[in-house]
Amino acid sequence: MKIEIQNTSKTYLNGKKALMDANITLEPGVYALFGENGAGKSTLMKILAGLLKPSTGKILVDGQEMSPLADAYREKIGYLPQDTPIYSNFTAAKFLSYLATVKGVPKQDVQTSVMSALEAVNMTEHANKKLKSFSGGMKRRIGIAQLLLNDPELLIIDEPTAGLDPKERIHFRNLIASIARKRIVLLSTHIVSDVGSIAREIILMKQGRIIKQANPYELLDEIATEIWTVDVTDQELLELQDTYQIGSIQQTRQGKNRVRIISSQMPHPKAAQDEPQLEDLYLYHLDGRGKSA
User: Fold this and answer.
1) Structure pTM?
2) Which residues does the UniProt record annotate as the domain ABC transporter (predicted)?
3) Looking at domain 3-220, does it have CATH number 3.40.50.2000?
């Protein structure tokens, strides 16, 4: 499956331009959508999910134009919002059986679809347990399972790791990587480290526009000479914060501050260049003080 979003914009009735001239090509793999609140991520995802009609532009599926509101298009996608409603008194199997029926899965195939979806998210042994007993990570896995019931080719997931502990986030990342082998997975997150390592491409959005779309390593190479670290005193730290874009601050055993700085020039006589990370990429392009501001 190949999806092309061409010159797509969305202007709401109040005149707010939430999305402007978006152009994206999506093929099987994971695409990580990064951007601050209000950047247009949710609008883009809802258009792709068939929940919003774009003001301008078109969507091509395998080269043919298709309305995101058409049933033939919706059959190809699965959408998981950040807050997914569940029926707490249902067992996992009963909940998924209900949703399979709603999605139009033939009655004779419901049981097979449910068990296949549970197996895909490693939840088979919990099939007959009530959802109210599940942890946050388990509930998110059930959310993914319901997406798979009708075997969609495009999965759209909003903030998949929100509220999960570190261990659950690792499990979730591995799950996404496994189901993306033959599907397109577009997900939005503020925790860049959770998905950057499995993303085929990263899409950066700012103020309703897509400002970058490329392989993570290509994007990191672009800022390879912009990242510095240095150990400084509290007073030096204050001075650096007034002048430079600070990525992170850690306390050293010697009582100093190990500061990560984003700068095109050496920010301190003792600063050394460091390997760029995805968090640096996010700040460089999307933070108010970055070059893309």
Assistant:
1) 0.83
2) 3-232
3) no
